[in-house]
C-alpha cells in the first residue's frame, strides 16, 4: 500500500510532521523539493505540503487531485489560502493547533474504513441481570456468522468477560496494556495484540487493580474497530463514566437487560437517567419473570427488543469454564440470531 507524502524543505516542520505521523502509527514518504514529488503525486493516498514548498510546487503545475493539505505554523498569514489554492489543496491546517486532526488524516489515509462496523452496547438494568453473558453471546454469534467481531469489556469490576468466554488463560493484551499506548491505533495492530479466537477479538481486564478507562483510550479502540470490524459489542458498567459515555455516543444500538420484576424495573429506570444523556438508540431485553414485557417497556418508555427466558445448564457451563451454549434452540441463541439479523438488515 502506498504511503502519505510530505513535501517540505523546512527541517523543523518536517520533524513536527514525522512526530505526528508516528502518533498515527504511519510511515510517510518525504520530498525535500517540489520537483521530487512528481513520482508520488498520483499514487500517494494523502499529500501534506509545507507552506515553505507551496510556491515551488505550484510552479510545477501539479495535476488536480483530492487529498492535498497545506500545513503552516504562521497564524493568520493572508497568503496561505492563495498558496493552498495554487497547489490544489482542500484545506489549511495550522500547527500545533491542528495536530490531532492531522493525526486522523494520516491514519485515515493509511487505514481507510473497510468494514464500517456496527457498535452495540449492552448494560444491565440492575446487578446480576445477565448483561455480560448477553454481550458475550452476541459477540460469539456474530463471529460464528462470519462477522469480524470485537468484544470490549468496559466494566473493570465485572470479573473479566474473558472468563465468561472460558478464555481467561488466553495470551494477549488487556486494558492496562492498551491504555498505555499513545496515539491512534490500527485495528490490525489491535487484533495482533489482543486474544483472538477465529473472527472474535476480545479486550478484557487483567486480575488486580483496575484503573478507569480514559475516554481517549475508548475512542481510539472504537475508531479502530469501526474501520476494521463488522460488529463491536461493548459490555458496559451500570455507572456511566467518561469511557462508557464515549461508547454510548457511538452505539448503533444499546440493549438494557431488565429482569421482569419490580426491583429490576425500578433499578433500570435509574440507569436510564444517565444512559439517555448519551444515546437515544435504546431497546429493552427482558429476562422473563413475573412482569409482562409490554408493561416493562411502557414503564421505562423504551421499546422491547426481545425476551430471553432462563436457559437450562447455562450456569453450570459458565462455572465449568465453558462458553455459553448458543444452539439454535437455546433462548440466547434464538435472541442473538434474531437481533443480529435485524442489525445486518438495517
TrEMBL record:
<dbReference type="InterPro" id="IPR022521">
    <property type="entry name" value="Rv3660c"/>
</dbReference>
<dbReference type="Pfam" id="PF26563">
    <property type="entry name" value="Rv3660c_N"/>
</dbReference>
<dbReference type="InterPro" id="IPR059050">
    <property type="entry name" value="Rv3660c_N"/>
</dbReference>
<feature type="domain" description="Rv3660c-like CheY-like N-terminal">
    <location>
        <begin position="7"/>
        <end position="113"/>
    </location>
</feature>
<dbReference type="InterPro" id="IPR027417">
    <property type="entry name" value="P-loop_NTPase"/>
</dbReference>
<protein>
    <submittedName>
        <fullName>Septum formation initiator</fullName>
    </submittedName>
</protein>
<dbReference type="InterPro" id="IPR050625">
    <property type="entry name" value="ParA/MinD_ATPase"/>
</dbReference>
Amino acid at each position: 500500500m502506498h504511503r502519505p507524502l510530505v513535501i517540505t524543505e523546512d527541517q523543523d516542520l518536517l520533524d513536527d510532521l514525522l512526530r505526528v505521523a508516528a502518533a498515527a502509527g504511519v510511515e510517510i514518504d518525504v520530498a525535500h523539493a517540489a520537483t521530487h514529488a512528481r513520482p508520488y503525486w498520483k499514487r500517494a493516498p494523502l499529500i501534506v505540503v509545507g507552506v515553505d514548498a507551496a510556491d515551488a510546487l505550484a510552479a510545477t503545475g501539479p495535476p488536480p487531485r483530492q487529498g492535498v493539505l497545506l500545513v503552516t505554523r504562521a497564524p493568520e498569514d493572508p497568503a496561505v489560502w492563495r498558496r493552498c489554492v495554487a497547489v490544489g489543496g482542500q484545506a489549511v491546517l495550522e500547527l500545533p493547533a491542528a495536530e490531532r486532526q492531522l493525526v486522523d488524516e494520516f491514519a485515515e489515509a493509511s487505514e481507510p474504513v473497510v468494514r464500517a462496523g456496527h457498535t452495540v452496547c449492552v448494560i444491565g438494568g440492575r446487578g446480576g441481570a445477565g448483561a455480560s453473558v448477553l454481550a458475550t453471546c452476541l459477540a460469539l454469534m456474530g463471529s460464528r456468522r462470519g462477522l469480524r467481531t470485537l468484544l470490549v469489556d468496559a466494566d473493570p469490576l465485572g470479573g473479566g468477560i474473558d472468563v465468561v468466554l472460558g478464555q481467561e488463560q488466553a495470551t494477549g493484551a488487556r486494558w492496562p496494556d492498551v491504555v498505555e499506548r499513545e496515539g491512534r491505533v490500527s485495528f490490525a495492530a489491535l487484533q495482533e495484540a489482543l486474544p483472538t479466537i477465529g473472527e472474535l477479538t476480545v479486550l478484557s481486564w487483567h486480575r488486580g487493580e483496575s484503573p478507569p478507562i480514559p475516554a481517549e483510550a475508548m475512542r481510539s479502540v472504537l475508531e479502530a474497530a469501526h474501520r476494521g470490524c463488522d460488529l463491536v459489542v461493548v459490555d458496559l458498567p451500570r455507572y456511566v463514566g467518561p469511557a462508557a459515555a464515549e461508547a454510548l455516543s457511538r452505539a448503533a444500538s444499546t440493549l438494557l437487560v431488565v429482569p421482569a420484576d419490580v426491583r429490576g424495573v425500578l433499578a433500570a429506570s435509574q440507569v436510564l437517567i444517565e444512559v439517555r444523556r448519551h444515546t437515544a438508540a435504546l431497546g429493552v431485553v427482558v429476562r422473563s419473570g413475573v412482569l409482562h414485557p409490554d408493561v416493562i417497556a411502557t414503564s421505562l418508555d423504551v421499546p422491547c427488543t426481545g425476551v430471553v427466558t432462563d436457559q437450562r445448564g447455562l450456569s453450570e457451563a459458565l462455572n465449568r469454564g465453558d462458553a455459553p451454549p448458543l444452539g439454535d434452540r437455546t433462548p440466547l441463541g434464538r435472541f442473538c440470531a434474531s437481533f443480529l439479523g435485524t442489525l445486518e438488515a438495517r
